[in-house]
Each structure stands twice: as C-alpha cells, then as structure tokens.
C-alpha cells in the first residue's frame, strides 16, 4: 500500500502502555499547572517535572534528545518552542507553553508520551480552560487570552477532524487552519501558523511518521487508521509566522517578537473512534463542542 506505509500500528496492549505514559505526562501538566506562577523559575518547574517522571518509574524522552539539556521545554512570550528552562522568574502576564514528555519501558520497548499546554502567568495558578467557551465570548478578552484560546481550540478542531472514517492526516491541518481563520473573522485579527514545526506520529519513539502539518496542505496524505497514534500540536502567533533559532540551537523565537502559543494532544485511533491518551476523560470534555465523542481505551 502506497499511503500510510511506515506508520507504526499499535495493538491494544501497546496502546495501553502509551495511555500509561500519556497519563504520566498529564501528571506533569497538573504539577506544572499547580506550581507555575509569578516569581517561580522555569528551572524549578523543570525539576518538579523530572521528579514526577522519576516517581512514576518513567524516563525522560526530552533529556538528551539531540543533546537537549532539560526534562521539559518552557517557552515564554516570543519563544515559540524548545525554550530551555532557565533562571529568569515568570512574571504576571507571561504567556508560557509547557511541552512535556516521558516514556515507559514495556516488553523491552519504549512507549512514549508527549503533550503540551500554555497558560498566562498570574500570582496564583492559572484557571483551567473552559471547554465550552465560545469564540464570541473570547472577543471580550485581551488578544493574549484570545491567542491562548485560538491555540487550544484549533488543537481540538484538528483532533476532531481525525474522527471520521477514511480521514487523512492532512485533514487535521486543514481543520486547524479553518479554526484559525474563523476566529480571525470573528476577532478581527488572524493568528500566524508556524510552519516549521509539525505534529507527528508517536509510539516506540517520540517522533515518528507521519508529519502532521498545522495548515491546509496540497496533495494526498495517509489515511488515518486504527492503531495509529498522532500528536496534534499547532503553534500560533499574534504576528508573523516567521521564526528564528537562537545561538543555543534550541530556543525558537518569532522574528517580530510577537507572542507565540503552543498546545499538543496525543491521540490514538481505535476501531470505534478516537481516544485522547493524555486526557483522563479521553478527551470527552474538550471534544464535546465539536460533536465528537471519544472512545475509552
Ligand atoms: N515535545 C516536542 C514535540 O512536541 C519535542 C521536544 S524536543 C526536545 O514534538 F528536544 F525537547 F525533546
Ligand atoms: Co510533539
């Protein structure tokens, strides 16, 4: 078969291992959410993440990946992705993405989890996003809050596009771009979609085929099939979508210093539908606004 060749297909048990890894990443998210506030440093958050992974009997997949020097990526304001946790404390109003991962070893193989979210830093932990909030209500918010909401919403729009028989990988990016455009029409400004970074397959390695682009791409792509696991992870900006990598060879910033925001969900495809591995409720709340009912593993 021409399309879909080279995409790892997981069996039931292997999806179970990946669910375990993804839920450990969710525990990292919960700990980060709880600790991240003004005055805390990214390095402190990175340490907490490493502790969650160790306590769970898992391993870091970021640490040492192409020599990456930390456990998670923390990208502040105009940093787009791959921010290395350092010693500059968060300030009130910082828009920060936390990209986290780990793997478990089962049956002699690695089973990877990888997901990300963003928050606006305050004096207290940020409120959890409301799955049902509408674009219209967000027209009342600051542009920073709008960017956060567009990024979160477009992630779930991309995931929802997987829940159709014979859906193709490129349908995800088309749905993300459509979501970004429809927010743009309602809000009067359109987020930039960074094209240099994509979502990806995941399984016995963190990054596998296929690439999952975050925009409408021409050409035929692989059919999404049961046993595949995909990470959907749009990166959006409040300005140009042009980015530049800093001298540390990791930190990626917007060239115009516009704010950037990143979200990532890890989604398994089952015979009966999709299943968001990194959400304890399998993605039910997040996908309800799209009329999609995810399946339990
Ligand atoms: N987790 C990122 C992704 O979403 C990749 C992290 S790169 C690392 O694909 F070097 F930091 F590990
Ligand atoms: Co990823």
Written overview of the protein:
This protein has helices spanning 12-35, 42-55, 135-138, 143-160, 169-187, 284-287, and strands at residues 73-76, 79-81, 95-106, 109-120, 192-193, 199-201, 208-212, 229-232, 235-237, 243-245, 252-254, 260-262, 265-269, 274-276. The chain has six helices and 14 strands. The mean pLDDT is 95. The chain has one domain: Alpha-Beta Complex (Creatine Amidinohydrolase), CATH 3.90.230.10. The strands form four sheets. Strands 7-6-8-13-14 form a five-stranded antiparallel beta sheet. Strands 1-3-4 form a three-stranded antiparallel beta sheet. It is an alpha+beta fold. 48% of the residues are buried. The protein binds 2-amino-4-trifluoromethylsulfanyl-butyric acid and cobalt (II) ion (CO). Residues 114, 200, 231, 233, 264 line the site of cobalt (II) ion. 2-amino-4-trifluoromethylsulfanyl-butyric acid binds next to strand 3.
Principal-axes shape call: globular
Q: Count the helices. How many?
A: 6
The total of beta strands comes to: 14
CATH overall fold name: Creatine Amidinohydrolase
- What is the helix fraction of residues, given as a range? 25-40%
- The protein's oligomeric status is single chain
Indicate the mean pLDDT.
95
Secondary structure class reads alpha+beta
Which strand order do you get reading across the main beta sheet?
7-6-8-13-14
Q: What is the terminal separation in angstroms? A: 27 Å
Tell me the number of structural domains: 1
Low-confidence stretches: none
Rg from C-alpha positions? 18 Å
